[in-house]
Design a protein that fits this description.
Blueprint lengths: L1 H9 L1 H24 L1 H11 L6 H15 L4 H7 L2 H14 L4 H6 L19 H14 L5 H11 L1 H4 L14 H19 L6 H27 L8 H11 L5 E4 L7 H7 L4 H7 L1 E2 L11 E4 L2 E3 L6 H7 L4 E5 L11 E4 L5 E6 L2
Parallel strand pairs: 1-4, 1-5
Antiparallel strand pairs: 2-3, 3-4, 5-7, 6-7
Helix pairs in contact: 2-3, 8-11, 9-11
Length: 351
């Protein structure tokens, strides 16, 4: 850390210039945040580790256990307090990004960010990454402070969220990991080139096989396994709506279809200027920090869940209802959009 600080001091002019340019480029973003703070803090608050009730519930549980053991409330509060337990929770979440399950076997906790049967790195890098880190320090490379600092800092944002370990919030760690692993390969080859002439070929074959495994998992297995998580079916749904919508004055989306409006805008290349005039929004964030569009043009988006038994009696001619499998019973379905594995993605109903 001392050497890294000295490096910053020696190059303070470059650092200041970089900071200044960064602030100038981000200024429009900062201004928009000041005008609408919920755009930034609404979503950030809802994914924060402090938003999760787990730590608070754990404090209550520990204090009850202490009380049953005859420990006074003041002593219990001293040992089981929010700052300490939140610190432990953040620390645990931070180091979860360096666990073998996340790096090499299972990957992200959220299936929408997970490659089937894979971690973040190839299995061969369980050897090459530590090896690169070892030689980086042993050879006293000048870049080691930047690479290690980059890796350490890159994981920090994710550790303050309650969905960990997370690919999408630790993505900046990709660069130092690749460089350090590559440095391990170079040192391994340079030290064993006279002893193992087949080592370069062996490593090349392993990486080619690993890449092939990834491509099959990503392009073949994942669409079948995670179609719902990747929101498959909206393109097909919009295409069907476009082919039939002249018969309908209203197209109504039920709550579990999510933020369907964005797909209608995207696949129809809807003019932004027209949409901005038509959109009806309430600007009220839900418990996860999302705001919803209620309607635009003939499209209506229900936010709160409603009973299909009631909706089916309210349905009028000229209205199209779109929902998930559990929202519209099969006997009322006129058309279905299917996932690649044959399961129902959407059901469409009308009179």
């Amino acid at each position: 850390l001392v050497k890294y600080f000295k490096f910053l001091v020696r190059n303070y002019q470059t650092v200041l210039k970089s900071v200044f340019v960064g602030l100038v480029l981000l200024l429009p973003l900062f201004i928009s945040f000041l005008k609408q703070p919920n755009v930034l803090f609404g979503r950030a608050k809802s994914v924060s580790v402090f938003f999760d009730k787990g730590v608070k519930l754990r404090i209550g549980e520990l204090q009850v256990q202490d009380g049953l053991s005859g420990i006074t409330p003041k002593i219990s509060l001293f040992f089981h307090n929010k700052p300490y337990l939140y610190f432990l929770d953040i620390l645990r979440r931070y180091f979860s990004h360096f666990e073998g399950q996340f790096l090499f076997l299972k990957g992200d906790t959220a299936s929408s960010f997970r490659i089937p049967r894979m971690g973040v790195l190839y299995l061969i890098e369980v050897v090459l990454f530590p090896l690169g880190l070892f030689y980086l320090i042993k050879n006293n490379e000048k870049s080691k402070f930047i690479l290690i600092s980059w890796l350490v800092i890159a994981v920090l944002p994710a550790s303050f969220t309650f969905l960990t370990p997370a690919h999408n919030r630790s993505f900046n760690a990709v660069f130092p990991i690749i460089v350090i692993s590559s440095y391990g390969v170079l040192n391994l080859l340079s030290r064993l080139k006279t002893k193992l002439n087949l080592l370069p070929l062996t490593l090349s074959v392993i990486y080619i096989l690993s890449l092939n495994y990834y491509l099959v998992s990503y392009y073949k297995v994942m669409p079948q396994s995670y179609g719902a998580d990747w929101l498959y079916g909206f393109k097909q749904l919009v295409s069907y709506i476009n082919s039939e919508q002249n018969q309908f004055s209203k197209v109504i989306f039920l709550p579990k279809t999510g933020m369907s409006y964005i797909y209608l805008l995207f696949y129809n290349q809807y003019p932004p200027a027209v949409y901005q005039k038509e959109a009806v929004r309430d600007y009220v964030a839900d418990n996860l920090g999302f705001e919803y569009v209620k309607s635009f043009s003939k499209y209506i988006f229900f936010i709160k869940e409603r009973s299909w038994e009631i909706l089916s009696h309210q349905m009028k001619s000229g209205e199209m209802y779109i929902g998930r499998e559990e929202e519209i019973p099969k006997e009322f379905s006129k058309y279905e959009v299917l996932y690649p594995d044959g399961k129902v993605a959407f059901r469409i109903s009308y009179l």
